[in-house]
Amino acid sequence: MNGPLGERIWVSMISDRIWALKEQDPEAFKQAVKEHFALGQPGFTVIRAKYPHIFIQDDRKHFRG
């Protein structure tokens, strides 16, 4: 899947523990999702969260050699 500028968009998932934050504390949910992907998928930006998927954009620079 590609974003509007040709970036690669990936679909991923997170734990139910993090999803539970979405209703309880939306700001804590957003922060937890960002932190989760910063650790596990550096170079990716979270685009959207729609249960059970998290859509992330691949912002890493790809070199062709």
Task: Give an overview of the whole structure.
With 65 residues, the protein is an alpha+beta fold. The chain has helices at residues 16-24, 26-40, and strands spanning 8-12, 44-50, 53-58. A three-stranded antiparallel β-sheet has the order 1-3-2, with helices on one face. Helix 1 runs antiparallel to helix 2. The mean pLDDT is 88.
Key words describing this protein structure:
65 residues; three-stranded antiparallel β-sheet; 3 strands; 37% helix
Q: What fraction strand? A: 25-35%
Biggest pleated sheet: 3 strands, antiparallel
- Adjacency order of strands in the biggest sheet: 1-3-2
Q: How helical, in percent, are the residues?
A: 25-40%
Task: Please provide the count of β strands.
Answer: 3
Number of helices: 2
- Overall mean pLDDT: 88
Unreliable residue stretches = none
Question: What's the oligomerization state?
Answer: single chain
